[in-house]
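Feature request, filed as a ticket because there's no other form

It would be nice if the structure record came with a short human-readable summary line next to the tokens. Right now we just get the raw output. Example of a typical job, pasted below so the devs can see what we mean:
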Amino acid sequence: MLSKRMQELEEVSKELLKVLLSDWADNLLRRSLDKRSRMDDKLLASQATAAQLVRELTTAEETVAQTLLDRESELQRSLRRLQDMEEELVRAREAGASLQASSSALRQELQELREESRRLEEDAEREEDAVPSAAYVTQLYYKISRIDWDYEAEPAQIKGIHYGPDIAQPIDIDGSRHSRCFVSDYLWSLVPTAW
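Raw output as currently delivered:
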């Protein structure tokens, strides 16, 4: 009997221990669950923050990528403009060389014309005694004004070529559209004042 009572006491002790332990385990379980809940909340908050950071990073990457594309496009446009300007510069240099060659040829021709004009003047001076007085006055006007008149022009047209110190300049004035005073002033303005 004693052994039976001992057994019963032992069973009651075990049951009592189970009840005590179950309350402790329940508290432990509750604390673990609370801790787990807090950790889950922190995890969700961290995931939300990480998602927001990823969105912001993606937006920043898109902005940087668009900026880079815009700058690359601008660089390409600038390079095309630079290439166009370089091509235009090459064309301008070629045109300048052509103009310089043409200018040299015209200067040579002008020099030849001046030399021929000087020879003609010298010949005219030698023949001056044989020339009537109207021709002498015409030559004198030519020497002063250096204008070679076009006598075949219409009566209202004043045409000729003025041989200035640097360049020969054509004259073509419509006398019916301008006053005599204007025509006279214009022609005298061509005559150099330095002797």
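Something like this underneath would help us a lot:
Strands lie at 147-149, 157-163, 168-174.
The two ends are 164 Å apart (CA to CA).
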